[in-house]
């Protein structure tokens, strides 16, 4: 469907107040899911981020890389193993995670942002003592860590120079020895809090929080943090949505103004959420 000149003007007019509102503010975007697999969606995400950066919004991109890690492990003849939805990470798997996330995935995202006209720099939690962690209690996940410390100096320096930081979620062990695999949602939440970000946006493969699990038309657009426990008791928040929403709640409690879960399967979902009256997904505040 062709968009008319008048419709284009309406879109830009609607976006302008939001651009003014967020100019100079920091937004942390966690990137993962199908939006990382489809070339078309990947391109749309990069275009959105570059546009936001160009109009003066400070964007930090925090990424996962599950499909790429699975593919590399398969090439090595090693089976991926999950415990309660989280990747079991023995030492060999940790070596692969570090190589794929901080190497292949991180640098390819930097390159894509540059190709779309942005300036970007690849970082990981090991750089400048950004993320420190201890092993998740119990040790049943292997080298999976709980974040104990966040240092955002390198991220701030990048933003101040007009560069988009692209962060791979690997942390240094507090003991100075091991490295740990960190859940990307959790890392994005803690980084957003340390930056006192205006927004944290988690890109997922669902519309957002649904009142009825199988009905995408039952999207809940806004949730107060105080309502979350009640929604859990009612079973509205369940399964894989629990840890994502817990990340959103934790970020708000640590000072992030608003957090969002949006559908990364929709092209330009970031711009729709941030620069339109309608928005998309579920907002927590």
Provide the helix percentage.
40-55%
Strand percent estimate: 15-25%
Q: Tell the overall outline.
A: globular
Provide the low-confidence segments as ranges: none
Largest sheet: 8 strands, mixed
- Give me the Rg, rounded: 19 Å
* Continuous helix count: 9
User: What is the CA-CA span between the terminal residues?
Assistant: 35 Å
Give average pLDDT, whole number.
90
Q: Give me the side-by-side strand order of the main sheet.
A: 5-8-2-1-11-13-14-12
The helix-and-strand class reads alpha/beta
Instruction: Write down the secondary-structure element order.
Output: HEHEHEEHEEEHEEEHEEHHEHE
Give the tally of β-strands. 14
Keywords:
single chain; 9 helices; 285 residues; alpha/beta; globular; 8-stranded mixed β-sheet; 4-stranded mixed β-sheet; 14 strands
Task: Describe this protein's structure.
By secondary structure, this protein is α/β, with parallel strands linked by helices. Helices cover 40% and strands 21% of the residues. The protein contains nine helices and 14 strands. It has helices at 5-22, 39-54, 66-75, 91-115, 153-160, 184-194, 228-233, 241-253, 269-275, and strands at residues 26-31, 58-63, 82-83, 86-87, 120-124, 131-135, 145-150, 164-168, 170-173, 179-181, 199-204, 222-223, 258-263, 282-284. An eight-stranded mixed beta sheet has the order 5-8-2-1-11-13-14-12, sandwiched between helices. Strand 1 (26-31), helix 2 (39-54) and strand 2 (58-63) form a beta-alpha-beta unit. Helix 3 (66-75) packs across helix 4. The longest helix is centred in the middle third of the chain and has 25 residues, at 91-115. The protein is globular and about 55 Å long.
